[in-house]
Amino acid sequence: MSYTYRVKREILQNSKLSKDEKYSEIRAILLLKRAIKESCIDLRIENKELAERVFANLKSLTDLKITISYSKSKKFGEHNVYIIYIPQQKGLKRFIEELTKYNPVIRKNCSDVEKGFIRGMFLGCGYIKSPEKEYALDFFVDCDELADELYNLLIEKNKRVYRTIKRNKPLVYMRNAEDIMDIIVLIGSMKEFYNYEETTMIKDLKNKTIREMNWEVANETKTLDTARKQIRMIDYIGKMKGLNDLTPVLEEVAFLRLENPEESLQELAEIIGISKSGIRNRFRRIEEIYNELLEKEREA
What we know:
Elements: H1 3-12, H2 19-32, E1 41-45, H3 48-61, E2 67-73, E3 79-86, H4 92-100, H5 111-125, E4 126-128, E5 137-140, H6 144-156, E6 161-166, E7 169-174, H7 177-186, H8 190-240, H9 248-259, H10 265-272, H11 276-299
Antiparallel strand pairs: 1-3, 2-3, 4-5, 5-7, 6-7
Helix pairs in contact: 2-3, 2-5, 7-8, 8-11, 9-11, 10-11
């Protein structure tokens, strides 16, 4: 069972909608499916539960004669196509005109119209990936005008949303977990919202733990690399001139490093009671002596 199916199934189980939500949701679905014709409404849907929902909502909003039936389709494998049909009759034109009023651009700041429209768009063309895999919410919209309407509405709601062309269709998409969760709540899938939130929290915690572990490993590796380099320089100085020839301060830090090959500079500094920058300066002086000895050896 896909994550998209789970979200849509939960939405379709909720029939408690306001009049504004019903009109706005139906308008979005009819426009998506290009169902509004010159003399009728002819809606064809492959999802039985969605067809039943649209039919029930239409019956609750109008007294127009409406029929629902199904036919067999062999396109991409045999399956049922559900047909909701409103023939030419008195009142049809007025009903279609009424639908146009439930445009979020016209009914600005009407939350029920916005919810119904976004929900209808999701039911008709929305796809959401499981948060375990990726944070992604996609709307594949056949109509440029409708894609712009959805995109602009989400922008107005301060969502990080993008628009492009994919599979020769306008694609309106989101890739931010918080924004996606906001939309899940908005369209009425509270159960999946909590599942999504929990998965996101666990995933973020795992990523944080991995980052911290990688940071610790990188720091330990850097410390060991630095220590090996310092020990190599000290051994070379001891071989060429003897560590006793160093100043007492440098001799102290050289033997300290040899005795503590895995300690960090901060830990070495704490052992002898100086600052980290202080011990770094002493090793810098040891490196200068090491380089001077190398240069003399090359000249010789």
